[in-house]
TrEMBL record:
It catalyses: (2R,3S)-3-isopropylmalate = (2S)-2-isopropylmalate. PROSITE patterns: ACONITASE_1, ACONITASE_2. GO terms for biological process: L-leucine biosynthetic process. This is 3-isopropylmalate dehydratase large subunit. Its cofactor is [4Fe-4S] cluster. Residues 8-284 form the Aconitase/3-isopropylmalate dehydratase large subunit alpha/beta/alpha domain. It comes from Methanothermus fervidus (strain ATCC 43054 / DSM 2088 / JCM 10308 / V24 S).
Amino acid sequence: MSMTMAEKILAKASGKDKVEAGEIVMANIDVAMVHDITGPLTVERFKEIAENVWDPEKIVVVFDHQVPAESIESAENHIIMREFVKEQGIKHFYDVGEGICHQVLPEKGHIVPGEVVVGADSHTCTHGALGAFSTGIGSTDMAMVFSEGKLWFKVPETLRFEINGSLDKYVTAKDVILKIIGEVGVDGATYKACEFSGEVMKNMSISERMVLCNMAIEMGGKTGLVEPDEKTLNYIKKRTTKKFEIFKTDVDSPSLETMEINVENLEPQVACPHNVDNVKPVSEVEGVEIDQIFLGSCTNGRLKDLRDAAKIIKGHEIADNVRMLVIPASREIYKRALNEGLIKIFLEAGAVVCNPCCGPCLGGHIGVLGPNEVCLSTSNRNFKGRQGSTKAKIYLSSAVVAAASAITGKITDPRSLER
């Protein structure tokens, strides 16, 4: 029987030769991740049902949301997790400053193709860029995973996006996924495995593929997936010696639906308040005045984003009416950006560079917006109140649009600066 990549991975994880979309399976978990916000609740529930975790080698704990601790409450959460890590002998613990969980896990070699990865964070679907079935779950479900090493899944149908054409200058992976979400809608792929393929995907780097998989959840997807290729193997072999198995989708799979996406002549895209699917070409929103730029997050805080933004900003100053926050997604990225001189470019332009963390993405303690303020963010969500005040407005864009807008003080098409 023909199966999709998602079906094949779940079949293997549940000890079956084949599974079908809609079937309920109990799958063995290969990697389980919590962070400083979801971890304490997981620990609380776990202690109600078990004494020892099923496998301390397969659990990863990352501090990334409220770091360094900005309140007594968050400091207490950190203490809870540090004590739990020590008590359970959890080897893979990344304390304050290592970076965002969805960047740290692949960087540190925890993600390989063909595995089932769960994280107590909705953007865990990012890791499907390396060919793993990776999805977000709640803290209570994670407590069961910590205890048993298993979790039930309903096998999802697969919606495959065949992305073809060529991307113009200043048009990025972020623009592609925003275009897709704008067409499909926030619930257009509910509980489906969103698979990204086509010539455009073949040409994208691993970091760019992560952008698309990261935002699969923003159209309701259960996971995002990209079939592993030579780029995947090169990325993984530099980071781990873990054994893995590669799965690919059979094109005649009964549960496979394909959607053609043509990105020829696509212009930069912007998601407007207050929904991720409220997407418009940048030409339709140019001129909107902004108060803050946020360059970072698990979507666009990677080295390529910093490089792209620095190329535009170099030699310029941030507009007087704008504050720009630059937050690398991990310590590794921060160090490389420092060595390449990118951090110096941002600082000389007037930006504020912060430690690797989620930053204002969750409305945390860095860069919170006040009433009626407008932010252009490279993150993945723009819901009302997401980054602070419910009266603030958040627009989402790529790093290059954010950089161009930081110079002018209003939403700007980067191509207009060149003209």
